[in-house]
Structure formats: C-alpha cells, structure tokens
Amino acid sequence: MSGAGRYAAMFAALARRGEGAVVPFAVLGDPDMETSHAVLEALVAGGADALEVGLPFSDPIADGPAIQAADTRALKAGARTAACWELVRALRSAHPALPIGVLCYANLAVRAGLPRFYRDAAAAGADSVLVADAPMDEAEPFRAAAREAGVAFVAMVPPSATPRVVAAVARHAEGYTYVVSRPGVTGTDAAPRQGAAELVRALKRLAAAPPLVGFGVSTPAHVREALATGAAGAITGSAVVERVAHLRPGARDATVLTAFIREMKAASRPAAPPAKR
Amino acid sequence: MKLDTRYGTWGGVFVPELLVPALEQLEAAFVEARADAAFGARLDALLRDYAGRPTPLTRCERFGGGAGAAIWLKREDLLHGGAHKTNQALAQALLAQRMGKRRLIAETGAGQHGVATAMAGALLGLETRVYMGAADVTRQRPNVLRMELMGAEVVPVESGSRTLKDAINAALRDWAGSYEHTHYLLGSVTGPHPYPLMVREFQRVIGREARAQFLAAAGALPDVVVACVGGGSNAIGIFSDFIPDAGVRLVGVEAAGAGLDSGRHGATLARGAPGVLHGAHTLLLQDGDGQVSESHSIAAGLDYPGVGPEHVRLKETGRASYVACGDAEALAAFEELARTEGIIPALESAHALAEALRLAREGLAARILVNLSGRGDKDLDTVAALRRPGAQAAPGNGPEAGAPGGGRP
User: Which of B47, B143, B194, B249 has the highest CB neighbour count under 10 A?
Assistant: First the structure.
C-alpha cells in the first residue's frame, strides 16, 4: 500500500471507532538522528494515528521559533537529507501500516531535482509530501513528480484562501488536506481560531481529502475543538518539538512524548473523560 | 496573478498559500497605481522635493585618470537617505497607504533600506518595524540610530546566520500574521512576484535620468554601464532603460569577498545553483542538499546568498554580463575615489568602481557609466578597522569577524 492508501485505511478505521486522528509532527534529525528516532517511536507508542515528519531546512519561513530551533538543532548535528530518508525507512519497516507524511520546503526538492526527490521519498516509504512554500499556483511540477513516484500530494488551505484555491486543493490534494487554523506561522503562542470550521465545511462540500487541522494545536482542548469543526483530526507540531527541545542531551528516554500524545489521543475519542495527569 | 510572474523560468510566487492573497492585492494595487496620474504626480513630487531628484551625473576629474577612458558617476549617493533605496521605499509606502495599510515592515542588511523605509514611514505617518540581523545591528550602529530617531522600531534577528537572509525570514513570518493591516516593504528586486517587477519599475528612474543626462553631456551613449549586485535593485534600476540599446554593455559586479574559491563570497550569479529562496526560483549559494549557505562580503548590502530573478535571466540571455570583485579591490577603489574625487562611496558601490577602473586600465571601454548607488558614511567604522596596521581586507579582519553561524557546510 502506498500514496493515499494508508491514509484512507487509517481514516476508515478511525471512523469505525468514532475517533479523530491525532498526527504529531517532529523534525527529522532533531536534536540528532538517534534521539529523533527515539522521539518518533515514542510518538507512535503514545497512539499517534500517523506521523508528519519535517526535513530540516536552513530558512523555514512558515515556521515559528520552536520549529526553527528544531531545524537549526538538526542541521547543527549534521542532518543530511539522505540520513533523514534512512530514518523514514526505519520507521516504515517498523510500522508497515502507519501513514507517514513528509513536510519540506521547495528548495530541498528543487535542489535534488523533483523526480529524484519524490522517488527518494517513495523509496523511503513516505506516503505523502507537503511543500510548505509551493502554493497551488506553483504546485503543478511538484504534483506531477508526486504522481509519477506514487506519493500523495498534500496541500495547505489557509483561512485567507480564495474559493478558487479551496476548489483547486479539493480537486488535487490526496491523502489528507492540511487546514491551517489561523494566520501566522507555526507555534503554540496562538491557539487555533474558529474560522477553521468554515473551511472544513467548504472542503467537505467539495469532497476534498479528509481535513486535518494544524497550527497552534497544543492541548487536548484544541484537539476537541478541531474535531468539533467536523475535521477528521488534528496535527500537533510545535508542542511536540518544544518537548523535544527539553530532552536531556543524548537522552534515549522520550516517554514525555508518549505521555503527551496519549493525552492528546484521549481527547480524540468520543465522550472522552477529562484527561488524567 | 494578472501579470507574468517569471523571467524565463526564473521568479514565481513561492510562498505559503497563506500569503498569496496579500501578494495578489499588492499586484492589483501596483497595476492600478501605475495607471493613475495622481499617484505618479504625488510620487514625482516626493522624489523631487523631498528626496532631491534628479540626482546629478558627475564626470570624474581624476578617478581612473591617465587610462584614456572617461568615467561618469550617477550620483544616487546624493539622494536623501544616502542611497538609491529611497526611490522605491517612497513609492511602496505610497502604495501601502493606497491599500489602507497602517503599518510597514521591512528587512535590512547594511541598514540603507531600513533607513529609507523609516523615512517613508515617518513622512507618511505609518508605524514602522525593521528586522535586522543581530550581526548587522552590531556592525552598522549609525544606521540603527538613524532608524530609531525616525521613529522605527528595529528588531535584531538572532536566528540563523543573524544577517540579511534571516532578517527577510523574520519579516516574512511577521507578514504571515499581519498582512491584513501591514505592508511588507521589501527592499530589492528579490522575493516573490510582484516585488522583482515592482521594485524594478520604481528604480527605473535611475537609468531614465542617467541615459538622458549622458546623451546631453557626452553626445553619445556610454559603452558600458556598471553597477554592483547584491539582490540587484540598483543594477536593474540603471540597466532597464539601456536594455534596448544593443550597443551598450551592461555589467553587474558581485562580491567575490575573500575570493571565489575561498567559499566566503556573495557571488551568486557566478557560483550559485538553481533553487528557491524567499519566494523566488533563482540562483542560490547552497550545499548539495539545498541548505542555503552563508555569504560573505566586506559590504553588508552584497552579503546575500540569493539574487533577483531578472538578473539570472539577463545573464542567461547574455544581455548583461556579471563579474565579481573581492573585498581588497573594492576597498582600494573606495580609497581611490575618496582621494581623487573627494567622494566617499558606499562599499557596495565601490565594487562597481573597481570594475570601472579595470575596464579603463585595460582599455576595454572609452565611456563608462557607474551607478554610485550610495554614500560611504555608514562604512567608516569598517574601513577604519581595515586600515589599522596589520589589517587587510581578508577573512577574519573585518568588524564582522566572529559573527556566529558562518560555518554551515
């Protein structure tokens, strides 16, 4: 199974259980490859329904301070793209059914050459690629390379999106649709806004790939709010990465992340009791 | 977008989807304003009565003397603010007002664009915030004070290399959360469409004036027009009206820093590879994975690992050629212009002067027009440090030595 298939299976299974998806995001190689591997396994152990992993980039313009710092830590530790793909490969072989999405910036794909970049993603076992700075009007070459490699093309829909862009995303995006909850960059300093509900309704009306809400999702209450909009789940990134930043250097014990995802996951279930601490 | 966003295959709109509507709004406002005579009249009046246009064309008396060539200088150093940046900062600030935005944000490297934006913000009563790399805040103190005196808030950027590239990142992040009431007053012919086009059109006045002045003074067109290239706005500004003149050679001069093979330079057109940075498909200094490299130049305004997409196109078509000049040659030209003409140029412009000297001495041109894009007051501390006994314009001796983050592979 590849491309959108693992996402479809995940959403179907969640629907049967009446649950929403909780998808944590972490930067590959943050703070180093080994710890990053432990972090990602800890997220899965906490009940992550899928993983979103970021390739570190020198100039992440869509990201706030937490994820910028994560990219810097990873690059300082020498994270190369090839080693990041190796880590994805390891996750894939350990978790054959888990959807794994890759988030990156355009330059990493352009530099590698789009066909090679998407082939590498597919070979590592990634299900989808989202390019943060390739809006729909620039997306065609990326989409073509994704299609060729059998990787799902994921796109972001922000609150500022025009109806034309919402329609284009609904028509072309595969796997899931990334609904940006609010203006600004990634980070836990600003919570999601209500506007996401309107976008989610519009996407559903257009039969888009299931919407996941991201940006500012850092507490179980945010997960419940995201699901209340009708979204299929929530993506939590900066809150994860901030916890990674507090791991002791060389720590292999990332149980704090398991506990965090367990709490977030509890909020994704129907009639969830208040999260226990 | 309504206009073509590309120069050949270069340029485009590579920003998060969130910012696309803000760029569409900007493009629409620019197109409308260009067709509006009242906007043009207001801008022309500001450029004349506030900024001091037209700027003179000066024929050098002694600079390059004895080489048998005549060197003319387009005196953007005499523009209010001390550099060509004022031309387009005033224009964009008027556009911001027209769009009903109440706040300006900008990035700055050497501080010249920040100063120009602070001036425009003060003049039009717009709240102004300037992002500046923390390393540049340290090496360009006087400009920080100038911006603050004019009421702008200067925010030092501590991330990444703590220079211009990171200041642009910070401004883009601010804009992602503030576009509804804020205009991003980008300072060069870089970034996503419509900036490269819009900034070119607002800087075109340099070449329009210079061409007419040159014809009047010399009775002919120049053989060659020379300008320095960081992002490339002063070069595009002086080149544009000469592009149809097939007999006029256009030469852009990049920063070779400590040498092209040293890895410490800003010569993107010479050594860059295709990539995407700050919204545009262009050439970049980068590693094999696509991580953007640190650049280096004695001139903070040329210390940028990307370049405006139209320059990549001009190089590709052969209409312009690009060379690189090192720190030491630029410093020598800086000193020679001061000594022979009584004019202290910006270190950025000194790169163009160095190439003009070379063309004159090697007998490669008889009539040379140089864009003297800015004055050098801001560079006096840098030059003083380099003139101390034992110092030389080489890596590690400038005041920027010790700026962290210079070693990304």
Answer: B143
Q: Which two tokens stand for residue A273?
A: 């009791």
How many domains, in total, are found in chain A? 1
Q: Which residue of B has its CA nearest to A135?
A: B17
- Is A277 contained in some domain? no
For residue A12, what are the contacts with CB-CB under 8 A and spacing of at least 6?
A: none
Contact B110, B140 (CB under 8 A): yes
Catalytic residues of B: 60, 84
In a domain, A131, yes or no: yes
Task: Tell me the pLDDT tens digit for each residue of A14-69.
Answer: 999 999 999 999 999 999 999 999 999 999 999 999 999 999 999 999 999 999 99
CA distance A233 to A47: 13
**Using CB atoms within 10 A of its CB, is residue B356 exposed (0-12), middle (13-18) or buried (19+)?**
buried
pLDDT tens for each residue of A185-196 = 999 888 888 778
Calculate Rg over the CA atoms of chain A. 17
A157 min Cα distance to partner chain B (Å): 7
Tallying the residues shown for chain A, one arrives at 277
CB B103 within 8 A of CB B178: yes
Tell me the residues of B at the A interface, defined by beta carbons under 8 Å apart.
Answer: 1, 12-22, 159-160, 165-166, 169, 172-173, 176-180, 273-279, 281, 284, 286, 288-292, 408
Spatial distance between the Cα atoms of B235 and A245, rounded to a whole number of angstroms: 44
In a domain, A101, yes or no: yes
Query: Does the CA dihedral A264-A268-A269-A270 come out positive or negative?
Result: positive
How many other C-beta atoms lie within 10 A of the C-beta of residue B176?
A: 25
Min Cα–Cα distance to chain B from A60, Å: 8
Q: How confident is the model at residue B195 (pLDDT cuts 50, 70, 90)?
A: very high
Token output for A265: 């996951």
Phi, psi of A174 (to 5 degrees): -125, 160
Query: What pLDDT is stored for residue A275 in this prediction?
Result: 53
Write the CA distances from B309 to A139, A206, B9, B13, B200, integer angstroms.
19, 37, 9, 12, 11
**Cα A114 to Cα A146: distance, rounded to the nearest angstrom:** 8
Q: State the ipTM, two decimals.
A: 0.95
Count Cβ atoms within 10 A of the Cβ of residue B362 and give its class: 0-12 exposed, 13-18 middle, 19 or more buried.
exposed
Which residues in A have their CB inside 8 Å of a CB on B?
57-65, 68, 72, 75, 80-81, 105-112, 132-138, 155-162, 165, 180, 183-185, 190
* CATH number reported for the structural domain that contains residue A27 in this entry: 3.20.20.70
pLDDT reported for residue B392: 58
Quick one: angle between helices A114-124 and A140-149, nearest 10?
40
Question: Closest Cα to residue B171, out of B124, B222, B219, B105?
Answer: B105
Q: Which token pair is A188?
A: 């836990």
Q: Is residue A229 part of a domain?
A: yes
Residue B405 reports pLDDT greater than 60: no
pLDDT for A207 beyond 60: yes
Q: How far is CA A22 from CA A234, A237, B27, B408, in A?
A: 5, 11, 39, 35
Domain that holds residue A104: 5-266
pLDDT beyond 90 at B202: yes
Distance in Å from the first CA to the final CA of chain A: 37
Residue scoring higher pLDDT (A189 or B394): A189
Hey, which residues does B251 pair with through a beta bridge? B226, B321
